[in-house]
Design brief:
single chain; 163 residues; mainly beta; Immunoglobulin-like; ten-stranded mixed sheet
Length: 163
């Protein structure tokens, strides 16, 4: 009986931890999202540009890109290009954009893009431009966008860039 009393606190602690872990059920810790190929078009003297990248979601549940921001710009908004009766229209994605489970969300010219407005300085080739992406599940992610004069030949051509 004396031995049991000495071990009771440790046994109780172990049972509490086990019960807490069991209550999580099948919940797994989410893997981080991966952003690749982030770039913006160089501009000099113009107050706006656009940002492009890909984001991969290795998780079994979708995530959502809610917003973006940059200290070097007055505003950054998520946009989609939609074709209506053969005419391309740029539409703000106010509800955000879904990053599918085990999938990829691509931002590319003529499609999804970040509209960066009110630039505080020009953007020259070879510079970087930092933005913060806000995801519903993944939280905040600071991404360094390369400043280039023209679009890379393919989204994967910049995949080796450090984000």
């Amino acid at each position: 009986m004396f031995r049991l009393r000495r071990r009771l606190p440790a046994l109780t602690f172990t049972l509490v931890i086990f019960a807490a872990l069991a209550s999580l059920g099948g919940t797994a810790i989410a893997a981080p999202l991966k952003v690749t190929g982030a770039w913006v078009r160089a501009v000099d003297g113009m107050p706006m540009t656009a940002g492009y990248f890909s984001v991969e979601n290795p998780n079994s549940v979708p995530d959502r890109l809610l917003s973006a921001s940059a200290t070097g710009a007055a505003s950054v908004t998520l946009h989609q290009t939609k074709i209506v009766q053969g005419v391309a229209h740029m539409v703000e994605a106010q509800a955000g954009l879904v990053v599918p489970a085990h999938g990829r969300l691509v931002f590319a010219p003529g499609g999804n893009h970040l509209m960066i407005d009110g630039l505080k300085t020009g953007l020259k080739p070879g510079q970087t431009f930092s933005m913060v992406l806000k995801f519903e599940q993944g939280g905040l992610m600071t991404v360094s966008f390369s400043v280039v004069t023209s679009a890379p030949t393919s989204p994967s051509s910049m995949s080796g860039m450090k984000m």
